[in-house]
Write a structure and sequence with these properties.
alpha/beta, Enolase-like, domain 1, four-stranded antiparallel sheet, 13 helices
Length: 372
Amino acid sequence: MKIERIVLRQLRMPLVHFFETSFSRTYERNIIVIEVVSDGLSGWGEITAGEHPFYNEEWTAAAWLIAKDYVAPRLLNREIAHANDVYALTKHIRGHNMARGGVEAAVWDLQARRNGNPLWKEIGGGARREIPCGVSIGIQDSVEQLIGKIETELAAGYQRIKMKIKPGWDVDVLRRIRERFPETALTADANSAYTLADTLLLKQLDAFRLTMIEQPLAHDDIIDHAQLQAQLETPVCLDECIRTAHHAEQAIHLKAGRIVNIKLGRIGGFGEAKRLHDVCEAAGIPVWCGGMLEAGIGRAHNIALATLPNFTLPGDVSAAKRYWKRDIVTPEIATTPHGTIVVTDEPGFGYAIDHDFLRHVTVHEETITPSS
């Protein structure tokens, strides 16, 4: 493939309902969509960085500059033998995995379309034809509001409920949720809100039979997580601190967690995500696909990723209508009554771009060419 041009589009899309984590509340998403063009074909990717550098160091405005000024020039007008090569061409850019990974994912989509393959097949997936789905529910204004949302999602068939926690919204809330839903698969996501000084508090969560507690400690820590996991019955799931397959190898060696969340953007694209998947599979560590409030392109990429064999736990790849009144792909990504998403066999990421709506929500667009 010779990449002739790369188009960056910034979209502004209001959420159906605010989403709150331990570090912020989000009402709308500013999403960067990447289009890579070669020989009349387009591949599509999504940069999953948030609006602010709170989840990690990346945010929309910076990701735009990294994609434009550093990633695109390394790919344009270059013969790329395989999408796997993109990671190596950009890995000397320190950090900024989401910016790099969004462009890399677009190249994978382009390659799949050139080969007439669905994206899941192109990346070596296909272990399942339906993706088991859970939901991530943000911090609410009241426990009653949270209970109502959980009831709605369980009625829709979702197989796992993940609720966000933070100091002051943890033990008592989880106790009430577990009492109300005694048999529901339930997980808690802390987004790095605690420290080892909170170990006694976190040990109280063992009573609630959680599937996991996700990233309770610092976003860049592995060692403290190992100390914490040794004192908990509940499996620790590592998220923010695992940015490469090597990080996973270190975490496994230290016994820092028993589960890993793989987010395509956080890892830098499909190539490194597959390497991370394989490391965890070899060690007997299950993985699942996390979400970043993606629009349809990023959501479809997550579906493809979750067909790899070691994605044995329900992920955050839920229906588009939970987030958007209208999405940028068609048909709408939807779940079955038993809480799965059926994998499509259409070429590329498997859905059509709704170009009219894409134009409607685009607030900034720029085309990068070799002469730019």
